Amino acid sequence: MSLIPGLGIVRGMGVTLSKFFAPKATIMYPEQPADVAPKYRGRLQLLYDEWGTLKCETCFQCAQACPIECIDMGGIDTKGRFHVHWGPPETYGERREESAIRRSGRTVADPGFAHFEEIDLAALDEILAAHDYDPKDTLAILEETQAEYGYLPVAALKHISRMTGAWYAMLYGTASYYRHLRFEPPSVTTAPRAGEAHRADEAAYRSALDAALGGAASA
Amino acid sequence: MSALTRPWNNLTLVGKVILPLLFLVLVVGPIVTVLAAVYVAPLVVDILASNLGIVRFVVAITAILLFSIPAAFIIIYMELKVIAYMNTRVGPNRVGPGGSLHSVVAGLKVLLKEDFTPTSADAIVFTWAPVFVFLTAVMTFLVLPFGPGLYAQDLNIGLLYLFAVGGMTVVGLLIAGWSSFNKYSLLGGLRSAAQVVSYEIPLTLSVVGLILLAGTMSLNQIAENQSGGFWNWYVFRQPLGALIFFIAATAEANRTPFDLTEADSEIVAGFATEYSGMRFGFLFFAEYVNVFIISGLLTTLFFGAWNAPVPFPHIELSLDPGSLGIMLLILLAVVPLILTLLFALPFWLTQSRMPGWQALILGFLAFNVVAVGAVLGLAYVGFDWFAGLVWFMIKSFLFVFLFVWMRGTLPRVRIDHLMGFAWKWLLPASLLNLFITAIAIVVLKSTVIP
């Protein structure tokens, strides 16, 4: 409540007038599609039909198509146990073992990610502790992880998923949405700049040529 | 006879219809026209000349009816676009350039909708209520001076007429609510009647001071009193009156923050609940015409009507195109051609990749822009009424913008606050304004002019 009556109205009118000249937030959708990174594949989500049943039939087509094997299938049975329905029923015993390990609190070696390189997780643990293992800080965690390792290793994503409880698929979807996050280490081969020597022994070669031609090659 | 009937029988049905029509148009038409021009026209001109007042009235009322619809369309478009811009949106942008034909298409849509009358509604009253509301809005245009000499009727009780006709809107709203046979419509009609009647009093009282100052109720005379610079405008002599008039007129026209009659975001449209199709369209046309009328009234009463803010030196133009004779025809034929080629030349010379016909089209467009600009400029300089119209429209649409701006900003007031504000604040303030003005006039008259 201001002392001058009507001051609030005048200030409100000022706000709307400044917005009148402000740049507009509208995106002309069909003509101008949203700017999305080419690596973006959307967020993975399982859908339910109108009776509340999971639409997924565990056909594993998505898991086989997934380029980085982030899709895995499993569920909790009627007794509250976790099962991964991977492959034919005779492999269930193996998975039950895994399930027992997981429920005992130990980390399970995930064969789906075994062939990705191991990394030193100490730095990542620090980052996660700084963010209190909060999945709401996903973007900040991912950015700091990339700053630490130079890229987002699969092992790091897996570790973040395990420690924060965020799904690996969500982490991957978030990371793939942003252009500045990458999954491969940045390329180290640098192309020679124009005018630079293309070969290591270019100078020696040139001087030999010069000597042979009597100074004509450098001219 | 068979020489005529044989080709006649060979004609198709369409030909049999078209041939007599062609005969009528080409042979009978000119003869009738010439006869009418010779014998009937003087009679008609005589009758019209002896009833010039009626002719002027009919012409003016037709022009006003024709004007009110595009004015409403422009205001609807302004409202959509300005509020969208204030919400950092773009607003309508699909129909026409920049979405400018959006409101026209919306009007067509309203025309195509089903026109529904509820069972056991009073059908006659129900049908005529929107017409009544629209007509009261349009009739107030009758005394509004758009420019020097550009008014339908210069009533010497113009202001009184305006408030009388404007006040009749309440009756339209009430019968619209009552005839819908719906208790919510009836309540909505009563609510809007209560609001409009309450604000009618400060609205009328706020201009009494102005009438005392001006010594007349003719809007034309009030406009002429304010000529010669913005320091003569009544807003500087009646600031309180102008403020009260502005607030009360906002409530009269049911604009935010006083749009309790429809309150489109909170309750169903009040008295207009049962209306659909073009009848609903008329109710809303009336609302937007009202917005223009209160803007025009504010301009006329307090902001110098058609007068420019700084007086423009009058230039006497002595253009007599008739004196050129046959040269005028040749000029009219040749000048557009030459100018089009002239304007096309720079495009053709500088843009080597542009085909010649594109350069010609651009040249023609440039010529049109220059020609229209020149004609409008000449009209502004040469005709007082045109300059007045331009200033009146600029000022009025600035006020329309202000009303739309307020709608984009302010929240709606509560109904008891609305009524309390009218009776506890606006009415005493307008009485105060009246007394101060009256005392000032008496004191000044007795001291300055003994």
Low-confidence parts of chain A: 87-91
Radius of gyration of chain A: 28 Å
Helix/sheet category of chain B: mainly alpha
Oligomer: heterodimer
Q: How many strands of chain A?
A: 2
- The residue-averaged pLDDT of chain B reads 86
Textual characterization of the structure:
The complex is a heterodimer of chains A (219) and B (450). Chain A has helices at 7-21, 61-65, 92-103, 122-130, 138-149, 154-164, 168-177, 202-213; strands at 75-76, 82-83. In chain A, helix 4 runs antiparallel to helix 5 (138-149). The termini of chain A are far apart. With 219 residues, chain A is mostly helical. Chain A contains 8 helices and 2 strands, in the order ααββαααααα. By secondary structure, chain B is mainly α. Chain B has 2 domains: 55-311 and 386-447, no CATH class; 321-382, no CATH class. Chain B has 16 helices and no strands. Chain A binds chain B through residues 9, 12-13, 15-17, 19-20, 22-26, 28, and chain B through 82, 85-90, 93, 405-406, 408-410.
Give a brief description.
Chain A is mainly alpha-helical.
Topology, please?
The complex is a heterodimer of chains A (219) and B (450).
Chain A: H1 7-21, H2 61-65, E1 75-76, E2 82-83, H3 92-103, H4 122-130, H5 138-149, H6 154-164, H7 168-177, H8 202-213
Antiparallel strand pairs in A: 1-2
Chain B: H1 2-10, H2 13-50, H3 52-86, H4 102-112, H5 123-139, H6 158-167, H7 169-179, H8 183-206, H9 208-214, H10 219-225, H11 239-252, H12 277-302, H13 326-350, H14 356-382, H15 384-409, H16 415-447
